Amino acid sequence: MTIAVRPASVFADVRALVGPKSPGANVCWCLSYRISSKLNNELRGSARGDYVAELCRAEPPPGVLAYDGDEPVGWAAVAPRSDTSFARSRRIPHVDDLPVWSLWCIRVRPGHRKQGISHALIAGAIEFARAHCAPAIEAYPLDSGEDKVDMTMAYAGIRKNFERAGFTHVADTTSVLAGHPRVLMRLDLR
Fold first, then answer.
1. What pLDDT is attached to residue 114?
2. Mean pLDDT over all residues of the chain?
3. Which Pfam families does the record cross-reference, listed alphabetically (predicted)?
4. Which among 14, 26, 92, 120 is least buried, having the fewest CB atoms inside 10 angstroms?
5. 80: how many CB neighbours lie within 10 A of its CB?
6. pTM of the shown model
7. Is the distance from CB of 119 to CB of 157 less than 8 angstroms?
8. Is the dihedral of CA 9, 15, 19, 22 positive or negative?
9. Which 8-state DSSP code applies to residue 157?
10. pLDDT value for 152
């Protein structure tokens, strides 16, 4: 299997990875960290998908997609931290004023897991941020040690996967997800 990672500019492919099964549902689309909670609550049903379609047409697009041939099999949300709710977070600290990018969601389709796709997505997100002149990229993964993580909550990523990609632990956070603490990790791109 050869995995290619490309910018998430094809809305149908993004929908296949993060869109809800029911088009009218008020969930996911990977918007909760991307937009304000007020807007997140206002966007209902198909308006959520319409908003993501606009993001896919924008520059930069809202993240990267992993493909196995022509089939989209993975998603990673990556954007300037200043464009996300992490810019205002009280639980995930700012360690300096560097205009870093944030990588906060990794999703691999069922049936394609345990094949290295999350590693390819992290590498693709790094290159995407680098291509957009990001000085560094941050992630806020779970520090689960050797404990298993519920797959629904593993979207934040696992610390050891980011360490393998060269990220280093920069700070602890007060954020907890699925019973596991999240840590702030960073990779310098300069």
1. 85
2. 93
3. Acetyltransf_1 (PF00583)
4. 26
5. 16
6. 0.94
7. no
8. positive
9. -
10. 74
Residue 112's pLDDT is: 87
**Residue 161, token pair as written in the block:** 């996967």
Q: Residue 1's pLDDT is what?
A: 67
Once rounded to an integer, what is the mean pLDDT over residues 45-51?
94
pLDDT digits (tens, 9 = 90+) for 25-41: 888 899 999 999 899 99
Task: Encode burial over 155-176: b for 16+ CB neighbours within 10 A, e otherwise.
Answer: bbbbbebbeebebeeeeebebe
Closest CA to 156 of 143, 137, 170: 143
Nearest-angstrom CA–CA distance, 153 and 181: 12
Backbone angles phi, psi at 82, to 5 degrees: -60, -20
The tokens for 35 are 């937009």
As a whole number of angstroms, the distance between CA 63 and CA 176 comes to 24
For residue 187, the cross-strand partners are 137
Q: Is residue 156 within 8 Å of residue 38, measured between CB atoms?
A: no
Q: Say which residues have a Cβ less than 8 Å from residue 15's Cβ, sequence separation at least 6.
A: 49, 52
Q: Report pLDDT for 153.
A: 74
Compute CA distances 39 → 3, 8, 32, whole Å: 34, 22, 9
Calculate mean pLDDT across residues 154-182. Answer: 94
Joined tokens for residue 100: 């870093």
